[in-house]
Design goal:
alpha+beta, seven-stranded mixed beta sheet, 5 helices, 7 strands
Length: 187
């Protein structure tokens, strides 16, 4: 069992270690500090029963757009997501992402969130596209230091809520039909 909680400055070294173990894209400590100081509510960690950090999400609000422009849309960006191999396939990445997205939308007022994922990273692509309802916005050629292309993906929060509502309605309809069949069988 893991605990998902907001990261503190004391977690940054373990977050960086997790990054080094899991990903080829690494960041200097000052980058973690920058995120922690600027968007503390967008950094989340997963810790195991003995308090060891086994995963994290590093997220931010995009600042490079002209925020005074009439067509400006506030949006977040997932900088990095990592879960130790020993703790994968337990839904930890999904929990971390959902928590960061919730904070982006409800606290920071974001309308959508973006991220980049390697074209070769099938597991991450499946998580983002199937589980979290991200859609490909663009392909960025040579995005990574080794020259690999990246999918630029986005999740629009309003669209995501509509999809969840439809899925919940479908599940409720199935339950209603199943219960109706059970009533017919026992009658």
């Amino acid at each position: 069992m893991v605990n998902i909680r907001m990261a503190t400055v004391q977690d940054l070294i373990e977050m960086q270690q997790c990054n080094l173990w899991c990903l080829p894209e690494n960041y200097q400590m000052k980058y973690y500090f920058y995120h922690q100081l600027t968007w503390p509510q967008l950094l989340w960690v997963a810790e195991d029963f003995d308090g060891r950090i086994v995963g994290y999400v590093l997220a931010k609000m995009e600042e490079n757009d002209d925020q005074t422009a009439p067509d400006y849309v506030p949006h977040g960006h997932i900088t990095s997501l990592a879960v130790l191999r020993t703790h994968r396939k337990r839904g930890i990445a999904t929990m971390l992402m959902r928590r960061a997205q919730l904070e982006m939308e409800q606290v920071m007022g974001a309308k959508y969130v973006s991220l980049h994922v390697r074209k070769s990273n099938r597991a991450a692509f499946h998580l983002y596209s199937e589980t979290l309802a991200y859609e490909i916005n663009d392909i960025e050629r040579g995005y990574y230091a080794d020259g690999e292309d990246a999918y630029d993906m986005r999740c629009t929060f309003e669209k995501h809520r509509e999809r969840e509502a439809a899925e919940n309605a479908a599940a409720a309809a199935v339950t209603e039909v199943t219960e109706g069949v059970g009533t017919l069988v026992t009658a």
